Amino acid sequence: MIRRREFIAGLGSAVAWPVVARAQQRQPVRRVGILMHLAAEDPESVRSIVAFGQGLEQLGWSEGRNVRMDIRWAAGNADRYRKYAAELVALAPDVVLGVGGTITAALQQVSQTVPIVFVLVTDPVGFGLVASMAKPSGNATGFTVFDYGFTAKWVELLKEIAPRVTRAAIMRDPAIATGIGQFAAMQSVAPSLGIELTALIVRDGSEIERAVTDFAHRPNGGLIVPALTQTSVHRDLIISLAARHRLPAVYPYSYLVSAGGLVSYGPDVTDQFRRAASYIARILRGEKPSVLPVQQPTKFELVINLRTAKALGLTIPETLLATADEVIQ
Description:
By secondary structure, the chain is of the alpha/beta class. It folds into two domains: 4-145 and 269-298, Response regulator (Rossmann fold, 3-Layer(aba) Sandwich), CATH 3.40.50.2300; 148-267 and 301-328, 3-Layer(aba) Sandwich (Rossmann fold), CATH 3.40.50. Helices cover 38% and strands 19% of the residues. It has 13 helices and twelve strands. The chain has helices at 4-10, 43-58, 78-90, 101-110, 152-161, 178-187, 205-215, 229-233, 235-244, 254-258, 269-284, 306-311, 318-323, and strands spanning 30-36, 67-73, 95-99, 116-121, 140-144, 167-172, 196-201, 221-224, 249-251, 263-267, 300-305, 326-328. It has a seven-stranded mixed beta sheet with strand order 7-6-8-9-10-11-12, sandwiched between helices. A five-stranded parallel beta sheet has the order 2-1-3-4-5, sandwiched between helices. Strand 3 (95-99), helix 4 and strand 4 form a beta-alpha-beta unit.
């Protein structure tokens, strides 16, 4: 974990954070806790926090003037989720931003009263985070990434981009209950596409490497990499394994394709953080998370990496290229 002051200082070239002396402030400084799922040095962490800070600033809340951000970085470690959730709640924040369902659950285990805004959650009702999407009722609300049915599109996309694939491995973390629903949604379309699905356990890097290597021993395989913290933390390993074993792979977020993955289809991650700023601002002005409905994504991105496709010997259909939001040459 790096110190908050050092991190904010490091963002100077990316976003201007207004600094006004405390003595000149005419309003109290409100406290916002942030519990991130990735490491502080992860470029995606920087982009997300910058987007969140920009969103807050546009709504009148600026670091150093009227808001203080206390950030903790869990880096995919479940023990840190619990530790940092307790640390942040102990600081008596006005509201906490939680990234992912497991982190939000850890925050709720510590406090049922501190307001929480979550992002990157698949099934907040099934996870027990809210009573319903329209009326959360408790101390948490926020933004989902997609519903279970959406994940079936990944299987369809894999078959369209790599027609030879007859076997697909779906990475799963057994500690995340939402994996069951995602697998079921994918299984609902896989047989009609001539694809046999296999679940791979991905609790850490060594399990990922062993499972992918074993799966790749048989031909005509492909990978589906769902939106899990472990797949984001170990994305370089997963992308290198897919390349080494010549496995076409579908990812949930565009930054995974920018890092060398083949294709992604999913929500704009930084947009989730920008939108979260709007709920944080409303809560700072007195609204309750219990009456703020959980919102779904408003934008999905299809991104294709032609360099990776060429290395795998794949020809991307022109119809797919025409609908892509970004094509990496």
